[in-house]
Amino acid sequence: MIDNLQILRAVASYLVFLTHYGLYIGPVLPRPDLLAFGAFGVDVFFVLSGFIMFVSTSGRRESPGGFLLRRASRVVPVYWLVTIGLALIALTGLKPIGIMEVRPDYLIQSLLFLPFSRGGFIEPLNSVGWTLNYEMFFYVVFAGLLLVPKAAVRALGAAAIFLALILLGLLPAPGLYWAYYTKPIIIEFAAGIGLGYAYLRLGIPPAGFPVRRLACAALSAAALLILGGQIATTLLDACPELSGFARPLVWGSAAVLVVGAMLLLEQGGVALKSRWLLSQGNASYSFYLVHNLLLHSAAKLAALLVAPGYARAALIFAIAFPASVAAGEVLFRYVETPLIAGLRHRLHRRTRPASQPTPIAS
User: Fold this and answer.
1) Under 8 Å CB-to-CB from 314, ≥6 apart: which residues?
2) Cβ–Cβ under 8 Å, residues 187 and 166
3) What confidence score (pLDDT) does residue 345 get?
4) Can you give the pTM of this predicted structure?
5) What is the pLDDT of residues 350-362, one digit of tens each?
6) Which one of 163, 185, 206, 296 has the fewest beta carbons within 10 angstroms of its own beta carbon?
7) Is 103 exposed, middle or buried, given 0-12, 13-18 or 19+ CB atoms closer than 10 A?
8) Residue 270 and residue 64: Cα distance in Å, rounded?
9) Per-position DSSP letters for 280-332, written without gaps between them
10) How far is CA 39 from CA 21, 44, 72, 297, in A?
11) Model pLDDT, residue 100
């Protein structure tokens, strides 16, 4: 486990929380979508996912089927549990986080990680699951690449496949799946694989290498990219949550710089130390899956106690953030970890299961 990346996972999940919190504080901000930049956390997760997939499978033989089963055992159980929980809550009439209607086809497609249109948005019942739809697609593509024995060819193959899909997306072909799986954002996964190849190839920096200065320069460049994107969208009166080619060019590049900086620091012997953030990095997947529900619940409670304005927005944050942290930790320790351990024990009876699984980005 690379501690710096675990800490980065925690920070990325907090950024996504900040974006969704923007829906509740937006009415009292100078611009309602001022916090949309937090969606950059998703781009960090995509780059991390490509990196971890490549590094974790390098130097060992793993069949495509075995890889998919291992990844499914990590991602699927807790996602299904939360999705079914949301559907049951919605059936009681509470309408959590915008679920205005629960239909059998909505639930089935959500559980199968298939994109579909719901209320004008392409998202499953758990709205953050749109990123999981991409993750499962990434896993399938990468499983095929495991048939390529050479790491360099595998990395080039990933870049070629995702670039080809993006270019094909420029063709005027109909269909939701076509539009969904050819979005430019998918190249960020290939960028993560490229980082993984560089990480394994370059190894530990030589003595005297300016690790700290180069990492700081990369982080500064990433911050400037994000800030520049915000300024540009403000001047153009466009949506600050970047889309199309702008997203991988700006936020994707920034994510590569941030992940690369964390890796460089780790390789150079500069490991960030924070038990809190390391723990949160482990629980970031569970936090990610439940934070929207808790934001919505906190907003309902705050509406009963405080009039609209800054005080209500502050109360929502004061309730939702610690509740999301606590729920994420509990779900990770007492549901996610035992489920993964049990499934992997069944899948690999002849191998000793890890004492604690290493969370992977979603």
Assistant:
1) none
2) yes
3) 79
4) 0.93
5) 544 443 434 444 3
6) 206
7) exposed
8) 35
9) HHHTHHHHHHHHHHHHHHHHHHHHHHS-TTHHHHHHHHHHHHHHHHHHHHHHI
10) 11, 9, 25, 21
11) 82
